[in-house]
Design brief:
The chain is of the alpha/beta class. It has helices spanning 13-24, 58-67, 93-119, 142-162, 184-188, 191-194, 201-218, 222-234, 246-257, 260-270; strands at 4-7, 28-33, 48-52, 73-78, 125-129, 167-173, 176-177, 220-221, 241-244. Strand 4 (73-78), helix 3 (93-119) and strand 5 (125-129) form a beta-alpha-beta unit.
Length: 274
């Protein structure tokens, strides 16, 4: 019988790249996205199920779980998420709430509802996609930083609670070449108007171009990241933590050895806050 994995956030980026890799490795894949049209190009097959799923909607999650009840579901990849960017003092409470609803509460809701299905299968595992920003913080990404710190904490707690029944793997990618940065302007809303006349105006104007340029030079491809995740999915003894990308590894090391004042000065200079 085929083992199945459910992956959230398959419309773009890491989730999109992971679908064909898992199918090629013999997994059956339940590919999910809020908008089913974004999954229309996936080649059909007996090893693919496509489900509409909004991780912020409990009824949607429950319906997805019911749709998987007849499958030998051996893995869950909590990948869905987005980044709310902007200076903290200029962000509205509802923007912070929305960030946590998707990246944190939605992730944990998926885990809670799918755990009974996973417990049926020996060797089941959950992959929680956090970020290098779950261990450190950068300017202008406060809500995203906070949400990924929360994912790290939830994952480490979950492993202590259920890790002997279901393996729990924390995935911490560095910069990835995905559509993530292309969506920043969409979630900004009227933020550029809010920062007009403040010290942040000039910083926000150049933020997208600067981040896009850095991503093109230094970021890892989504396929390479997904390949590392597939290794964890296939492992007989899944790792507790998968750090992906040279930046995630070395920037974390740099933060650990530098005095805090030096580290903060470097970040302020890099983001034009010096």
């Amino acid at each position: 019988m085929r083992n199945w994995v459910l992956i959230t956030g398959c419309s773009t980026g890491i989730g999109q790249a992971l679908v064909p890799l898992c199918r090629g490795a013999g997994w059956g894949v339940v590919a999910t996205a809020r908008n089913l049209a974004s999954l229309a190009d996936l080649p059909p097959g007996e090893d693919l199920r496509i489900l509409a799923l909004d991780v912020t909607n409990t009824a949607s999650i429950a319906a997805a779980a019911a749709g998987c009840a007849g499958l030998r579901l051996k893995a869950l990849v909590n990948n869905a998420g987005y980044g709310q960017v902007g200076p903290l003092e200029c962000l509205r409470p509802e923007e912070l709430r929305a960030q946590f609803e998707t990246n944190v509460i939605g992730l944990q809701s998926m885990t809670n509802i799918f755990l009974p299905l996973l417990r049926r299968e020996p060797g089941a595992r959950i992959l929680q996609v956090a970020s290098m920003l779950g261990r450190l913080s950068i300017p202008l990404a406060g809500p995203y930083n906070a949400s990924k710190h929360a994912v790290v904490a939830l994952t480490e707690t979950l492993r202590l609670e259920v890790g002997r029944e279901v393996a729990v793997v924390l995935v911490e990618p560095g910069a990835i070449k995905t559509a993530f940065r292309d969506t920043l302007a969409k979630v900004w809303g009227d933020l550029p108007e809010r920062v007009r006349g403040t010290r942040y105006e000039a910083i926000i104007v150049g933020y997208l171009a600067q981040r896009k340029g850095q991503a093109e030079r230094f970021a890892m491809g989504a396929e390479a990241c997904a390949s590392r995740m597939l290794t964890a999915l296939n492992a007989n003894h899944p790792p507790r933590r998968v750090v992906i990308g040279w930046d995630a590894f070395w920037v974390g090391k740099l933060k650990a050895i530098l005095p805090a004042a030096w580290w903060e000065r470097l970040l302020r200079m890099a983001y034009g806050l010096g």
